[in-house]
TrEMBL record:
This is EBF2. SUPFAM superfamilies: E set domains. PANTHER family: TRANSCRIPTION FACTOR COE FAMILY MEMBER. It comes from the Eukaryota.
Length: 37
């Protein structure tokens, strides 16, 4: 599974920030639970 992100022109870097930002948030949310388990 995975997310498809379509980024056009000037929105390229903003799109990357959104994608990586979301990944970082999920990592922060998931990691503590994974460690506790």
């Amino acid at each position: 599974g995975g997310a498809m992100v379509i980024i056009i022109g000037d929105n390229f870097f903003d799109g990357l920030q959104v994608v990586f930002g979301t990944m970082l948030v999920w990592s922060e949310l998931i990691t503590p639970h994974a460690i506790r388990v």
